[in-house]
Amino acid sequence: MRPALAAAIADYDASRFGRLEHGLPRLVHSVQMAVSAADLAAETYILTTRVLTKLGDELAWVAADRAVLSARLSGRPLLVAEAARVQAVLARRAGRFTQATDLVMAAADGEVLRGHASALVAERGLLVMSAAYTAAHAGDRAGMRELTAQADALAREAGGGVLLRDHGGGFGPGAVALHRISAEYTAGDPSAAVAAARRIAPARLPTVERQARYWVDVARAYAMWGRREETLSALLRAERAAPEETRARPAAQALVWGLLAQGRTLPGLRELAFRCGLR
Length: 279
Fold this sequence. Notes:
Elements: H1 2-13, H2 17-33, H3 38-54, H4 60-74, H5 77-93, H6 97-109, H7 118-137, H8 141-157, H9 173-186, H10 190-198, H11 208-225, H12 228-241, H13 243-248, H14 250-261, H15 269-275
Helix pairs in contact: 1-2, 1-3, 2-3, 3-4, 3-5, 4-5, 5-6, 5-7, 6-7, 7-8, 7-9, 8-9, 9-10, 9-11, 10-11, 11-12, 11-14, 12-14, 14-15
């Protein structure tokens, strides 16, 4: 099962959703049958939660609950923290901002993550970054920026490289820089989001999934700013980087619908809509 999980994580990083559609359910079935593989089960359910969350599937809640239980049974601090993080993402999406913040900050402040080991510092950074994004959703721009600064400090403390790559793309200065894009437009400042994006070389991001996220976030910032041509251009770049993910993600589809509903039809827009399954 371990090689199968590694292959599934690689497919997630490369945004190969077609392969995940077939391989991930088989892996979930396998870990359900295992009686002494709590750590493997936790990693599998965390990955499953990430995929289902991207697709807007309510089964993500079930996967997250199983991730939390399996992580606790494993006794591995990093898995317990990651399970809390994916659960917090779902709470945030449901508008439960206090719950989402409490989940990640309790994990970040817990004794099991204390210490100066780079992996522990990086996991705390991921949790703080999640709290920052929740603050953005709650309209707390000052809180978002304060927490983002804390995450940036943790990235430097951890050594400046990409750590915990299997934890949704990992943590480091690049992850914090990428986070700033979505955090700024979510907090209501699309110009700051675009400025943050311009400081990043997307081709240097560690995975295809991260590159696709970059371009979708840039598209969302431009859409909030009312710049339709730039929005479409960013969406097309996201599609080139990760066609399966971009076409399947509700976030990208919503942007395409918005472009279709507003103003003149831009060159390439209807073709993109067709590829996204929008009729």
